[in-house]
Amino acid sequence: MPDFENLRKVLLCQGEPQRVPLFEGTIAEDIKNAMLGRQAIGLEDEVEFYMTAGYDFVPLTIGLRQTLRGETSGIMGTKQVETSVLEAAEAHYNPFSGETSTRMWAEADEFSYDAVERLG
Fold first, then answer.
1. What whole-number distance in Å separates Cα of residue 44 and Cα of residue 51?
2. Which domain holds residue 23?
3. What's the whole-model pTM score?
4. Domain count, the chain
């Protein structure tokens, strides 16, 4: 049975957990599909996969990782998608050309937190 408190205990070094938690940053879609016996296409399928596989958590992409990968659904997948959340500017200096360029980043309140809200 999934137990986020078990993972939390490990991550925060709060004593010995009941068991060693499984942890993956991301899992290839073909593995998810094979385990589910169908294509994983949405947040509910992601939750089903991670719970069936015995994980104590479902990884979501919110913030910098969401921006870098262009994920808008909150699902930590292996496919990069287009994004429109790049808004706020951060300057970068190129020592070879001597030029400063601007890279666009989103502000925290511009990210979608729908996945967290849907999961509760």
1. 11
2. 4-119
3. 0.63
4. 1
Q: What confidence tens digit (pLDDT) does each residue in 75-119 have? A: 665 454 554 444 444 555 566 776 766 655 667 777 777 777 877
What is the spatial distance between Cα 101 and Cα 34, in angstroms, rounded to a whole number? 44
The one-letter amino acid code at 85 reads V
Single-letter residue type at 35: M
- Nearest Cα neighbor of 66 from 55, 56, 81 is 81
Residue type, 108: A
Residue 8 and residue 14: Cα distance in Å, rounded?
A: 8
Kind and range of the H or E run holding 90: strand 88-93
Tell me which amino acid residue 56 is: D
Token couple for 92: 């970068």
Q: What is the pLDDT of residues 11-22, one digit of tens each?
A: 999 999 999 988
